[in-house]
Structure formats: structure tokens, C-alpha cells
Write a structure and sequence with these properties.
By secondary structure, this protein is an all-alpha fold. It contains four helices and no strands. It has a single domain, classed as Methane Monooxygenase Hydroxylase, Chain G, domain 1. α1 packs antiparallel against α2, α2 packs antiparallel against α3 and α3 packs antiparallel against α4.
């Protein structure tokens, strides 16, 4: 359903809608443990928000930064298991 909504938002050139759906997809991937997908989506959402003049200190940005930090920690732990 989210992919259908994303297609509609893209067709309507609804920048905010696309950003919101990317955020939903990022959080869904994060919750499912699909960390590479979540990382790419969170980075994309953050770039889109920054282009809309959202401050780096905005709660949304901080929340995503914390999730990215956790993803990087998890990926490091997975890659370097002896």
C-alpha cells in the first residue's frame, strides 16, 4: 500500500507526501531489521528535509540521526563478529 501511495505522490509531484512516505518506509524497514534499506531511506528523508530548510536540530532530524547511529552500531557488530 505504501508503494502505491508513493507512486501517487510522485505522480502528483507532492514533495511533502513523498518525503512522508519515505519516512514511513524507513521506519518500517528499521522495525523489520532491514537496516541497509532503512539507512538509505533515512538519509534520503534527512536530505529532503534539509532542502526544505528544516533545522539540523529539529526533533525529526535528531530522531532519525539516533536511528542511523543505532543502525551503524548494529551493522558494525554484525560485520565484526569473530
Amino acid at each position: 500500500m505504501l508503494h502505491i501511495a508513493l507512486k501517487l505522490a510522485q505522480e502528483q509531484q507532492n514533495y511533502d507526501g513523498v518525503t512522508y512516505i519515505y519516512d514511513l518506509l524507513a521506519n518500517l524497514a528499521y522495525e523489520r531489521g532491514e537496516y541497509e534499506k532503512a539507512e538509505k531511506l533515512f538519509v534520503s528523508v534527512m536530505q529532503r528535509l534539509l532542502s526544505m530548510d528544516v533545522s539540523k536540530t529539529d526533533n525529526k532530524m535528531i530522531h532519525m540521526s539516533l536511528k542511523l547511529a543505532n543502525i551503524y552500531k548494529i551493522q558494525k557488530d554484525i560485520r565484526y563478529i569473530p
